Fold this sequence. Notes:
Blueprint: H1 2-15, H2 23-39, H3 67-76, H4 81-93, H5 103-113, H6 120-132, H7 134-138, H8 146-165, H9 181-197, H10 203-208, H11 211-217, H12 219-224, H13 229-239, H14 242-245, H15 252-260, H16 273-289, H17 295-312, H18 322-342
Amino acid sequence: MQNLEMCSKIYSRARSSEQNDPSVSLTALRKALHFTFAAANVSRDPAEVWHSDFRRMGYSHSPEDFDWLVDYLDYIYSDDHEVAYDILLLLASIGVRCSPAKQHLLVESLVACMGSTMPEHLHHAALRVACNAREQITSIDVIDDARLRNMVLTKLFPAILTVVCLRPRATPADDDPDPFFYEGRDLCYLELAFALARNPDWHPHLCGDRHIDWCISMIAESCEFPTSCAFYIAGILLRIAPEQLSVTSLTEKQWWDAMRSPWLCDSILLEAPDYYELLPDLAEGTKKHMQIAPKSDLEELIKNVDGFLKVLERGDPEQEDGTTIAVRELRTVASDMLEKLVDGKGVISA
Length: 350
């Protein structure tokens, strides 16, 4: 991070009252930022914004050491979109670290960068920052910082939804030159919504601000083209209380499609903590909503659950955890139900 320390000094010199013409220093700063990305082998290509691995950049400083980046973003975003894009990538790369005193300014700048007059790549970089800050956003306390929480609810959340809804999602069947780009955008958004759904305090806002409606709109596509997005959609819906979901008119078929879609994904996803955490709830939710499943769905479900079980059962059988037990019970219930259907005896309860 020595390059960022140098960038910080250049920025301080540019904003200093002793600097009559800051343009020279700001030009040097722009070059220094580009060098920082090159040294860390991190792409600035907007097409890679969802896929860049920022962990290679690393950091070992306190949040206050990066306050200058927040100040710089506020100073520059309306005049130089490319520099603003670089700053957003850097903020994402360092885990969106800044002092509590700068959090309000950061949220204001993110909202501005998602504005309708801003270019699309700036929208996406700002969304990436919000996603990477999801744990901090989730932990905002209504008592300790009501103003920041209100800003997130009334400004940042609507701006995020506008960015996600700005262009219809692409699918592999489309002629889009990169059909997976918008899948990355949706995954980024769903990771943020999933983190918020862990905290019941955020549930009324997820439902009332159309975020759950947007998640429901993704269900059909997640069945046709299964990706890791399916896990997050199911996880979000399973964490919201049924009485809150009733306003969205989620049908039984939508519930079933939402529950079965994650099992269509590659079991390698279990390496990610979010997916492993969700499995017990997903197994229970699948049992609850599989009553309308046709024979073909049940056969497919059993085959895919077997794949997940192979991964889960690689460890010591004597130390089997509740996750493996829950998934195995789902497999048993699905097999029993399929047997009843094949025998023509109807469907049994889960």
